[in-house]
Amino acid sequence: MKKGSRLEENEAILQSLLDDFLVTDAKGLILRVSHAMKQLYGLEEKDIIGESVYELEKQGVFTPIVTPLVKEKKERVTIIQTAKENKKFLVTGVPVFDEKGRLWRIATYSHDVTELANMKDYLGEMEDEMERVKNEIQILRNRYFQEHGFIAHSPEMKSCLDVAHQVASVDVNVLLLGESGVGKTQLAKMIHQESPRRKEPFIEVNCGAIPDSLFEAEFFGYEAGAFTGSSQKGKIGFAELAEGGTLFLDEIGELSLAHQVKVLKFIQEKTFYRVGGNKQRKVNFRLISATNRPLEELVEEKKFREDLYFRLNVVPITIPPLRERASDIIPLIHYLVDSFGKKYGGKKELEPQVMQELCNKEWKGNVRELMNVLERLIVTSSSNKITKEHLQSMNKKQKGPAVFQENSKSLTELIEDYEKTILQEAYIKHKTTVKIAEKLGTSQPTVARKLKKYKIN
Ligand SMILES: Nc1ncnc2c1ncn2[C@@H]1O[C@H](COP(=O)(O)OP(=O)(O)OP(=O)(O)O)[C@@H](O)[C@H]1O
């Protein structure tokens, strides 16, 4: 190929490049440009040949320029440049050296990235907007939960609430797991409140509190005169009461195997017969169940039916014990002190040491125990400030049997005090009368009577 035609070929290649191509000398004087210059920057070739890029930068044609950076670094440099009409260019400057290694030319090519930059800005704005909306939702949600008396500051509790929130709108079976007093019932109520069934009933059935022999009659109801001692009018059971709403089966782990079969059939078919009745009844409800027992272990031990477990366990939510979510304790204390203060007509305040001590407790009975302690502290303190001494004296009273003191209470009163303390502790731990009776080796009616007597609930 002849020398002339090689040059022509180079020129043709250069001009065919869609991107702008510009060559300056070492001082930044423009020697050559491609035709795309007009299309991209709106500049005529004849107007800028011989011009200095520094001058064009001053005039605001494009800024910043890559030339000084290439001169300084003596290597390829890429920058984002802004031109008129806020166009954005990705500009790369390449140094060309003479045979002595001195900077001779700077070749620059630019690529229009306006659209890309706009997209990036848009994306950035969208991300900011999303962040803002997310924060707003979080604030609204916190406010909603706070208004409904549900404190959730810890990440663990927040993630429980997130799942609860997600499943509230669909009729999926939810199984709430966690120790006694962690807030399972409260969460079940909130799921109901956020569900489309909120205007319909929320029927709570404490499976552990209904004596085995009465379960069917209580759960499915019975027809008039169905059995000796039954009401003449018959009775509607929990199953029927839940029509249209949410049926909350609390303490489901306490159900006997025989009743598990019946409940499973009922959950699957959503139909039932009242005791002594022959009319099949249909009911439409959403099911939430809860237990503080390790259901999986019970299944392995064949104490809980696997098929029922799978039915219930569609969406499990495990609420961690209070001791594992320390960041909930202080907000809970503030909330409870405030609401008990209002209930008992006086604003109370905890001394910092009391706060410290409460934060360090193990809270085996979880939020219920914390509530009981704060309620007792508030009710029994005569001053507005609850002190460490007050807490200690209350703990002492709770701990052991009272010892004999001159002019102390009568023996009956002392025994009653002690009995009350035992029942309070047992109630915090086991909640149901059936369970308490079992643990204390007494009958369920006795426990129910004594709880009533001592106003423990
Ligand atoms: N996060 C919370 N914020 C405010 N109050 C709470 C919270 N969690 C629980 N409580 C309160 O603590 C008490 C016990 O909660 P709840 O009855 O829901 O516990 P539970 O897990 O269902 O207990 P159990 O297994 O013994 O039935 C209730 O009075 C409830 O309102």
TrEMBL record:
InterPro entries: AAA+_ATPase, AAA_lid_NorR, Homeodomain-like_sf, HTH_TyrR, P-loop_NTPase, PAS, PAS-like_dom_sf, Sigma_54_int. Residues 116-143 form a coiled coil. CDD domains: AAA (cd00009), PAS (cd00130). Keywords: Aromatic hydrocarbons catabolism, ATP-binding, Coiled coil, Nucleotide-binding. The keyword ATP-binding applies. Residues 6-56 form the PAS domain. PROSITE patterns: PAS, SIGMA54_INTERACT_1, SIGMA54_INTERACT_2, SIGMA54_INTERACT_4. Gene3D superfamilies: 1.10.8.60, Homeodomain-like (1.10.10.60), P-loop containing nucleotide triphosphate hydrolases (3.40.50.300), PAS domain (3.30.450.20). This is HTH-type transcriptional regulatory protein TyrR. It comes from Thalassorhabdus alkalitolerans.
